[in-house]
Amino acid sequence: MSSLPFVTLDVFTTHSYIGNPLAIVFLSRELPTRQKQQIAREFNLSETVFIHPATTDSKKRSITIFTTGSEVPFAGHPTIGTASWLLCHSADAGDRGVDTLSMKAGDVPIALTPSTGNDDDGPSVTAEIAHDVRIHAARFPLAELLRLHTSLAPFFPATETEKKGADVSFPIVSIVNGMSQVHVELPSLAALGAVTTSAGGETISPASWLDEGWQRGLVMVYFFVRDGVDSQTASRQTIRSRAVLGILEDPATGSAASGLAAYLSLREGRAGRFG
Question: Fewer beta carbons below 10 Å: N end or C end of the chain?
């Protein structure tokens, strides 16, 4: 029986057992998609990355990303986690020169940022997030949201929503084809704290809500609250958020955060306003 080397990482943290867990599997030969899906299901983490055999381009690594149920074209914490492994943790000196991750959503430049010296966290990695932003024609109705997330009903009293009209709804945005979110702005941090997973674990069907040609992949509900202005920048808005997909809550969701930042920037203002 053959074996494959792998590592598990905690992403978006400098401490073990918190953050967003990720498995990275190192391939010496190509595997069928079916087999990669089986391995991802066995890890049972939100995502598993497969790093494919190196090509003649020493600065590029090809990766594929799987959830427990399907392959996805892009995801935030797998991108950052893979970049961190290659540029900071790998024992292979050749990995230190990698500057591009090639994935289904396209080529993503990555880089190592030296420590500022103001903390003990050491260097960090950056990635230019893949994007092909689509704001879909359909919007997600409040009534449908409250059917899936009944705990939020007290925060949308009927008398208040009636004043705004009966068509209260939320935008549906794809950061790339296959990774989509319903962006739900909530009225308070108390409402954000009341968010639960969806009733019966039901997920949103891409075929029912996304534009033609975009009806695939995952549709996550991304709840957010504007939490004032960042005291350090005095201009950038701070946003607090939670991401839910059926019965799962993702502790940190780079694709959804990128989608929200793109949507707000396109609809409301200028680059750098939201953080």
Answer: N
- Does residue 215 have a pLDDT over 80? yes
The type of residue at 256 is A
Residue 227 pLDDT level (bands cut at 50, 70, 90): confident
Q: Is residue 148 part of a domain?
A: yes
Asked if residue 219 and residue 109 are part of one domain, the reply reads: no
Pick from 92-96, 127-131, 163-167 the range whose average pLDDT is largest: 92-96
CATH number, domain containing residue 80: 3.10.310.10
Domain boundary among 106, 127, 148: 127
pLDDT of residue 114: 80
Provide the residue range defining the domain that includes 222: 134-268
